[in-house]
Amino acid sequence: MEKEGRTLNSHNNIPKPTLGRLPAYLRYLKSLPPECKTISATAIARALGLGEVQVRKDLGSTSGEGRPRVGYITGELITSIETCLGQNAMCKAVIVGAGKLGSALLDYEGFSVYGIEIAAAFDSRAGEWEFSQKGKPIYPMGHFSNFCRLQDIKVGIIAVPKDAAQEVCNLMVKNNIPAIWSFAPAQLSVPEGVTLQQEDLALSLAHLCKQI
């Protein structure tokens, strides 16, 4: 379930499938030689095995239409996609719950492609100096409020048991975190102006199995 509230960037209306293809466009464009000043949707589609209409639609969501007989200015297109993905202004997030799921999310490197940095995790059982396998800090809950204030945290990720989820959610709201992503199997409540997205992994897997 997703509750509408404040948005984190001006490209929040881009469809998820399009957003998922943008990193591939960016990698391809950055692989081009310096002398390739312009690029056509046809060339991009051919290189990535996509439909030309789809490519035009995707790029139109980020930078407008290409120029007739010219195509897209390669440098401008790269900048536009990077801006859309948030790479020019990283969005900082924190995780509460450093169990198996929380630790996996903390060390996952794929978020950075979309301009998201998982700055730290917090856990009620954490000691003063703990780190994930990839060196990310894991702090005790007593450091949560001060860390969020100093780091200007924009996203809170909940990876705790359902009985503790609403309390953690309330703590995030209290610390002015505008967006919350919850993996706890519990129905949460947030005030107006806070965006809440809840994931039910078991339900998603069950839905997938029904499609077989």
From TrEMBL:
Give binding positions for NAD(+).
97-102
A GO molecular function term, named singly, is: DNA binding
Source taxon at top rank:
Bacteria
Ranges for domain CoA-binding: 86-187
Taken from the UniProt entry, a GO cellular component term is: cytoplasm
Q: Which keywords has UniProt assigned to this entry? A: Cytoplasm, DNA-binding, NAD, Repressor, Transcription, Transcription regulation
Kindly report the protein's main subcellular placement as a broad class. cytoplasm
Set out the biological process GO terms recorded for this chain's protein.
negative regulation of DNA-templated transcription; response to redox state
The answer on whether this UniProt entry bears the keyword Transcription reads yes
- Sorted alphabetically, which SMART domains does this protein's record hold? CoA_binding (SM00881)
Subcellular localization is given as: Cytoplasm
What the protein does comes down to: Modulates transcription in response to changes in cellular NADH/NAD(+) redox state.
Instruction: Name the family.
Output: Belongs to the transcriptional regulatory Rex family.
**How does the annotation summarize its subunit structure?**
Homodimer.
- What name has this protein been given in UniProt? Redox-sensing transcriptional repressor Rex
Species, as recorded: Candidatus Faeciplasma pullistercoris
The gene for this chain is: rex
